[in-house]
Amino acid sequence: MGELFLFFGLISHDKVFIYTVHMLLAAGIALTLARVVMSNLQLVPKGTQNVVEAYISGVLKMGSDVMGEEPARRYFPLVATIGLFVCIANLIGIVPGFEAPTAFLEFALTLALTVFIYYNFEGIRRQGVVKYFKHFLGPVWWLYWLMFPIEIVSHFSRLISLSFRLFGNIKGDDMFLMVILMLAPWIMPMIPFALLTFMAFLQAFIFMMLTYVYLGGAVAVDDH
Known about the structure:
The chain is mainly α. It has seven helices and no strands. The protein has helices at residues 15-39, 48-67, 69-92, 105-127, 129-134, 144-183, 190-219. Helix 1 (15-39) packs across helix 3 (69-92) and helix 2 crosses helix 7 (190-219).
């Protein structure tokens, strides 16, 4: 997105600086939100606590549907944290003068790499190296030589799927918003803003869902 619409662009036009500042801003907002909620917990939730508890319940329900209640609770901290971080990072880009850090491939690829390494680590830790990689061979022994490279490529393609889906959608949203603001800078384009807000939540939901799916497949090798 052009520097014309970036407040931090007044300090520096360097891409790394812009990316880092907006990423830290998203992290700061997430941490502040968590601190606010935890500082005033009530038996009957209201306000921010009510919203956060609804988010927690929704993430747990989604995880339970994908991999069962017990595994969903085990991996809930990772998935919920990623979802909150991605959602806030997406929403930042909707505010004129700011850019979503998820519109940088470095951000999306780092998150995808984190998920990729973690679910493979969990699969190996819970199943053992031999048992985990055995399911890459498929059910038919005489097709092992074919299935193994296909499965390896399939797993590495998840890096591209996770990162480019998030990056491409948010980058496209930022460019769309830039065009709208150039055409109508003094008129609040409410419909585009509503659409981009929906897309911000949707991309965070998809990232969380895929994280649960990949974790579920890694730790439930015996079920295949």
